[in-house]
Amino acid sequence: MFASLVAMRPILLPFIALGLATTLHAQSRRLDAEVDRRAAQVQGKVVAWRRDIHEHPELSNRETRTAELVAQHLRSLGLEVRTGVAHTGVVGVLRGGKPGPVVALRADMDALPVTEEIDVPFASKVRATYNGQDVGVMHACGHDTHTAMLMGVAEVLAGMRNDLPGTVKFIFQPAEEGAPAGERGGAALMIEEGALDDPKPSAIFGLHVFPYPAGEIRYRPGGTMASADAFRIVVRGRQTHGALPWAGIDPIVIASQIVLGLQTIASRQVDVTAAPAIVTVGAINGGVRFNIIPDSVVMIGTIRTFDTAVRNDIHQRVHRTAESIAQSAGATAQVVIDTTTAVTYNDPALTERILPTLREVAGASHVALAPPITAAEDFSRYQQHIPGVFFFLGITPPGTDPSKAAPNHSPRFYVDEAALPVGVRALAHLAVDYLTRGR
Length: 439
Fold this sequence. Notes:
Blueprint: H1 2-55, H2 64-76, E1 80-85, E2 89-95, E3 98-108, E4 127-130, E5 133-136, H3 143-158, E6 165-173, H4 186-192, E7 203-213, E8 217-219, E9 222-225, E10 227-236, E11 240-241, H5 251-269, E12 277-285, E13 292-293, E14 296-305, H6 308-328, E15 332-341, E16 344-346, H7 348-362, E17 367-369, H8 380-383, E18 388-396, H9 420-437
Parallel strand pairs: 3-6, 3-7, 7-18, 8-17
Antiparallel strand pairs: 1-2, 2-6, 4-5, 8-18, 9-16, 10-14, 10-15, 11-13, 12-14
């Protein structure tokens, strides 16, 4: 009898494999249906959380109320919760009922120093001090929606914990927009303080609302959002009377030449067909009186790239251009470049793997390739440690031309809340599909 079974093994194996595949497929479909059922149940809560957070926005590293709201919710779901990460960050860990991998989902919580101009019942009236100035505070970039959606995802998955083969880590991050002057914060500090440790995820997903049509998803493999570097150039000449320029060295004229020189980096020195690049001077300050040529001029600006090699090359060119122009006039230029945010780089293989999930959630016709975006995101910090994918969720209401909709960071930035269930389902399905199929 045993010999007969051994002889039949080559014949039986395909049928066993087919049966196992059929069983796994049925289990996966059951989990997908459960995600959708629970996402529908939590929809009202997500909208209510979003409106509450929108009405009570908090600036970077000051998200105490928002963090407490998040922490209380995660604790109520029975998650392991850690607070005070990178000042106000919250990390929740949901351990499934079965062994498996670890996946992370991230949302940012901070608002912007923007005075809201949208007439909604939950509009922000909050004011605060930002870098010494009295400012309005508004969720003008949609971080209120990101936080609310991830709270909803936590509730969806917590209700399914017994069926989850692995662990989901929820990362609620402060200061994505950048820490206040003189402070540290954001994703880099979250990672430094253990947000990706104990347990360490093998992948991370995040989304950002954007003025695409509501409910539509955009993605891009590879470089998706630009690196953002801040530069400061101090040009030092020699002060003199405005009527006697030959008696000194004019840093204002030299700074003007440097501005023009910097523009040739992207337009004449870098192959922008391979990777887009931007060098922008945002401010020039120098001098106090109409008839005095000052001793020095300070210039500040930003560098945006989509490739690490291009980024490093441009840094060298900025140094060389400013220093050489200054030297040719007998002046000096001190260049300091602060590498604040890296390229948001979506792992190509992971992006390809999750595309069927995104298409199933939003509909294949509502998922499309996104163009490179020259704004920056410190989600990139997580991607420097583990593979990750960051995608975009459209929030422009029907009847509004997305190209004419107020952009992120505008006081008129508007979110069609009908898009939020798509975001909840997308993140929840990505987590479940990664745990069940991503090993």
